[in-house]
Amino acid sequence: MHYLITGHTGFKGAWLSLLLSARGHTVSGLALDPTPGALFETAGVDSILANDERIDIRDAAQTARAVQTMSPDVVIHLAAQALVRDSYRDPRTTFDTNVMGTLNVLEAVGATPSVKAHVVITTDKVYRNVNRAAGYVESDALGGADPYSASKAMADILTQSWITSFGGTPTAIARAGNVIGGGDVSRDRLLPDLLSAFTSGTPAPIRYPDSVRPWQHVLDCLDGYLTLADALLDGGGLGEWNFGPGEESFVTVANVADRAAALWGAGASWVRDEGDHPHEAGLLALDSTKAERELGWRNRLPFPLSLEWSVDWQRQSDDASAVTRSQIATFDAL
Ligand SMILES: NC(=O)c1ccc[n+]([C@@H]2O[C@H](COP(=O)([O-])OP(=O)(O)OC[C@H]3O[C@@H](n4cnc5c(N)ncnc54)[C@H](O)[C@@H]3O)[C@@H](O)[C@H]2O)c1
User: Fold this and answer.
1) Which of 13, 90, 125, 172 has the largest count of CB atoms under 10 Å?
2) Is residue 79 assigned to a domain?
3) C-alpha distances out from residue 51 to 17, 28, 303, Å
4) What range defines the domain where residue 92 resides?
């Protein structure tokens, strides 16, 4: 099966490319250049790609041309401006990329008859956050206080409207939350910030240590996306789907920082960052009962193991290619 991943040079995209390749699929990608030192580079993802197109999804004509030329069987649309804090710095690029970019991908897929399944990736942040403890279900209202969340909610509604209005390629929406795993070089994400501070022997400054967040290993989340693609290929899977972690993983940021520091060992520490920070959503939990019941998907890595794998990855990051491929093989054997 030939999979096209938009955003293959990013964190999830690099893991997904290698996961699909390990499962015997042909993989192509469409994205901007990777951030220097990103997993895409360190794990040698380019070596497994059938096509590696560096195209801006804000350009409708180029996006359509590239998708039609590659003629994949399945498209997983990950490409996005994916950081909340960058969305405050540059809301226009965030909305252009996440909303109009998604429209361009929907149009490109619609004009490519080879595509039999299309999975559009949004996020848990699409839900209107009413600070409740119970997990959000797929039929809950959407919202978005910050520009990133609003742009992803718009992409989600746009995709729903596209499916209702034009039908065409079997398309589904996947919503997942914070993921962790080796090789995330993004700024302003907890685990990358912690691990890079531990590596350099300095205390990690932590924002919102008392916030409770759900944590999931990137491989469990990606396995959810692929389970959904399989369901679409089998004639089901339409609609919106949550792929969240188990309830045991709803822990505070401080708890994650403490556990990660203990796993890292000598010299690892963190401090409360008292700076002035823009609004970030409080507790957001997903109820993934629908995906478990109807797709048979489940998380394979409980939270403590997800954290352990992430810290182990960092320790072995001198050979990112080997540790990433080895963790994928172990995951698929679970
Ligand atoms: N990482 C998380 O914790 C998380 C949580 C929920 C949802 N998501 C969603 O998952 C997806 C991937 O996230 P990630 O963590 O891998 O992000 P990332 O920032 O690591 O990667 C983003 C990818 O999108 C590409 N991209 C950005 N702007 C583009 C443009 N204009 N044209 C073409 N490509 C462009 C980048 O080149 C990169 O390949 C995003 O849709 C994000 O909203 C991520």
Assistant:
1) 13
2) yes
3) 12, 5, 35
4) 2-180+215-250+280-305
Higher local confidence (pLDDT), 189 or 318: 318
Closest ligand 1 atom to residue 38 Cα is 20
Instruction: Please tell me if the CB atom of residue 281 comes closer than 6 angstroms to any atom of ligand 1.
Output: no
pLDDT bucket at 190, cuts 50 / 70 / 90: confident
Please tell me if the CB atom of residue 10 comes closer than 6 angstroms to any atom of ligand 1: yes
Q: How far apart are CA 306 and CA 169, in angstroms?
A: 34
Residue 284: inside a domain: yes
Ligand 1 neighbour 149 (Cβ under 6 A)? no
For residue 31, being part of any structural domain is answered with: yes
CATH number (domain holding residue 60):
3.40.50.720
pTM: 0.95
Q: Specify the residue for token string 């497994």.
A: 48
Count of domains observed in the chain: 1
Q: How far apart are CA 206 and CA 224, in angstroms?
A: 30
Written as one letter, the residue type at 78 is: L
Atom of ligand 1 nearest to the CA of 184: 20
C-alpha Rg value of the chain to the nearest Å:
19
Whose alpha carbon is nearest atom 42 of ligand 1?
82
Question: b/e for 22-54, b at 16 or more Cβ within 10 A?
Answer: eeebbbbbbbeebeeebbbbbbbbeebbebbbe
